[in-house]
Amino acid sequence: MRKIYLVGFMGCGKSAIGRRLSYFLKMPYYDMDHEIVRQQGMTIPEIFEKYGETRFREIETEFLRTFRDEACIIATGGGVAIREENRRIMRRTGLVFFLDALFDDIYMRIRKDKNRPIVQTSTEQELKELYLNRRKFYREAGHIQVLTANRSLRQIVEYIGFQVNRLKANN
Fold first, then answer.
1. How many structural domains compose the chain?
2. pLDDT tens, position by position, for the chain (171 residues)?
3. What b/e string do you get for 85-111 counting C-beta neighbours within 10 Å, with b at 16 or more?
4. In terms of residue numbers, what domain contains 45?
5. Distance between CA atoms of 73 and 14, rounded to whole angstroms?
6. What CATH code is carried by the domain that includes residue 152?
7. Is 99 left (phi over 0), alpha (psi -120 to 50) or beta?
8. Quick one: which of 10, 79, 101, 167 could link to 148 by a disulfide (CB 3.0–4.6 Å)?
9. Helix, strand, or coil here: 148?
């Protein structure tokens, strides 16, 4: 089995689902943002402040190109799928799940999060516009869309696990 990528807007549950999926499928789990923070030796807000968003997006692409070659689960950053090159890399090297959450659910989770530079500098309406603009990229990146509304973390993990095991059995 290749990599499993989780894509979607910030706050859609990628990290929480990725951690649980790791136990469910007995595969290593990595949070892309945490790995970048570790590699760069600074927080994401610090990277944005010092180098800007464009450089941060380049760091994400470098991560996708060079991250270890092993079957694992990767929770991507919310903006990873906006770059065509990133979508190509993920689709070529793994199975991509688009965690499709409702904006209102997402906003309730992220509105006070100090570790999300975009949230700190945007209004609710601006975040909703960003969410709507990014959806097409998540759909293009994803092999499988996972609707998360009214589903527990356990239900989502079991659904993704079922899809992964079904595809393994067919290969």
1. 1
2. 589 999 999 999 999 999 999 999 999 999 999 999 999 999 988 998 999 989 999 999 999 999 988 999 999 999 999 999 999 999 999 999 999 999 999 999 998 887 787 888 899 999 999 999 999 999 999 999 999 999 999 999 999 999 999 988 887
3. ebbebbeebbbbbbbbbebeebbeebe
4. 3-170
5. 10
6. 3.40.50.300
7. beta
8. 101
9. coil
